[in-house]
Specification:
binds iron/sulfur cluster, 13 helices, two-stranded antiparallel ribbon, ten-stranded mixed β-sheet, binds pyridoxal-5'-phosphate, TIM Barrel
């Protein structure tokens, strides 16, 4: 049989022009409060797979709101800063964060699969932190010197932005450290660009001798489609524990019904709801803020209505604390 000539795959996988996206969604820039200046400050980037889940003609779509650069981002807001978690101070050395007992967080790449407007690392001076890969080796050497660390958290950027070759190299370095038990991967790929989870990647994850935990970042049930459903099932089949963390975001998921639907959909997909974070007050994200009072009211209702295993922990991060801080809502 003559192999059929593969047509060069020209289909694009990302939108990098917000106006093109709006056109496709049949929305005008004015209608949605689009800001070119905001897009310049933090570049617009969204995978086609995520766009396919955004509703056409809906200026209020909760997925669109997560990725669209809007005018409010350029307003000054009190209490907001470029490094709200004072991460610069927790860096043992560039790209290695050791804030919490037993766990070390490695920033393995500056690149993300999607640019979320509320991202607390949006102002992270990635450019100054050149040579991620060289630095990574030094950071791994540091981890190997510290017996107290049993878990390495891969973060970034998005660790799955690394090529399979890099990931495999990284896993072998980590596997050779005797005191490590687990690798935790914080990623948005599995949900926003599920085709990244190839058989090859699945095999690579299965082959790792350390336990693999994956923490997904899903804020709304609408992000989970048939494509993501399949990928989650494959990950679960490979014995990868799946958790989800969300951020409580105004206009995206700040109501009880939406959060209940999210928890249900996660559990249907083998994913345990882990954290519901309050917003980190990073410059340009104040339009996503939910007041503490509203957050507590919403959470109280969630607690009354959801089975315990479907209830994420409502937490905030306070610079200098030894763990994420649970938000007390009383009896
Ligand atoms: C969130 C976080 C962790 C992990 O915390 P868990 O409560 O174990 O999920 C570890 N290191 C840093 C720097 C973090 O921000
Ligand atoms: S994927 Fe995570 S790190 Fe990347 S922009 Fe979104 S929130 Fe930020």
């Amino acid at each position: 049989m003559i192999p059929r000539k593969k047509t060069q795959n020209q289909t694009k996988s990302y939108f990098s022009d917000p106006l093109e996206l709006l056109k496709q969604l049949n929305l005008s820039a004015e209608q949605v409060g689009f800001s070119a200046l905001a897009a310049k400050k933090f570049r617009f980037k969204v995978p086609v797979a995520f766009v396919s889940k955004i509703k056409v003609n809906d200026a209020q779509d909760p997925l669109l709101r997560q990725i669209l650069p809007v005018q409010q981002e350029t307003d000054a807001a009190q209490g907001y800063s470029d490094d709200p978690l004072s991460e610069a101070q927790s860096e043992a050395q560039p790209g290695l964060l050791q804030k919490y007992h037993g766990r070390a967080l490695l920033l393995v790449t500056p690149s993300c699969v999607i640019h979320c407007r509320y991202c607390f690392r949006r102002h992270y001076p990635y450019e100054d932190k050149a040579h991620f890969w060289q630095q990574l080796k030094k950071n791994i050497a540091q981890i190997s010197q510290n017996n107290a660390i049993s878990e390495v958290i891969l973060s970034g950027g998005d660790p799955l932005s690394l090529s399979d070759r890099r990931l495999s190299e990284l896993f072998s370095l980590l596997q050779s450290i005797p005191h490590l038990k687990r690798i935790r991967i914080h990623t948005r790929f599995a949900v926003v660009e599920p085709k990244r989870i190839t058989d090859r990647l699945l095999n690579l994850l299965s082959a790792c001798s350390l336990q693999i935990i994956m923490v997904l970042h899903i804020n709304h049930a609408q992000e989970i489609g048939v494509d993501t459903h399949q990928v989650f099932a494959q990950l679960a089949q490979r014995n990868i524990l799946l958790f989800n963390q969300s951020v409580l975001l105004a206009g995206v998921n700040d109501n009880v019904a939406t959060l209940i639907r999210l928890s249900e959909k996660l559990v249907e997909n083998h994913v345990i709801p882990y954290y519901l974070h309050t917003l980190d007050r990073v410059t340009g994200s104040h339009h996503f803020e939910v007041s503490m009072k509203d957050a507590k009211t919403i959470y109280q209702k969630l607690r009354e209505q959801l089975p315990g295993y479907m209830l994420p922990r409502l937490v905030c991060e306070i610079p200098g604390e030894k763990c994420k801080i649970p938000i007390e809502i009383g009896a």
